[in-house]
Amino acid sequence: MSLSQKYNLGITARVVEEFLTSKLPIIFIIGSLLAGAAALIVTPREEEPQIVVPVIDVMISFPGASAKEIENLVTINLERKLWEIDGVEYIYSSSRPGGAVVTARFYVGQEMEKSILKVYSKIMAYTPDAPPGVTGWVIRPVEIDDVPIVTFALYSSAYSDYELRRVADELIHRLQSIPDTGKTNVIGGRERQIRVLLQPERMSARHVAPLDLVRSLKGANVNLLAGSMDILDREIIVEAGPFIKSADEVGSLVIGIDQGKPVYFRDVAEIIDGPAEVSSYTSLTFGAGAHADPETRDMPGAIPGKTYNQVTIAVAKRKGTNAVQVADGLIKKFAELKKDVIPSDMRFLVTRNYGKTANDKVNELVKHLLIAIVSIIALLTIMLGWREAMIVALAVPMTLSVTLLANYLFGYTINRVTLFALILSLGLLVDDPIVDVENIHRHFKLKTHPPLDSTILAVDEVRPPTILATLAVIASFLPLFFITGMMGPYMRPMAINVPIAMLMSLAVAFTVTPWATYHALRKEYDRESEPFDFKSGTIYRTYRAIVLPFLESRRKSHYLLGLIGLALIGSIALVGLNLVPMKMLPFDNKNEFLILIDMPEGTTLESTDKVARDVKLYLASVNEVRDIETFVGVASPMDFNGMVRQYYLRDGPYLADIRVNLIDKEDRQFQSHAIALRIRPAIQEIARKWNANIKLVEVPPGPPVFSTLVAEVYGPPEASYDDIAALAKRVRKLMEETTDVVDVDDSITAPQTQYNFLVDRTKAGQHSLTQDQIVQSAKILLGGESPSIAHSNKERNPLEINLRLPRALRSRIQDMGSIKLKGSDGLMTPFAELGSIEKTTLDKPYLEKTCAK
Question: SS in 3 state form for 765-786?
Answer without folding.
Answer: HHCCCCHHHHHHHHHHHHHCEE
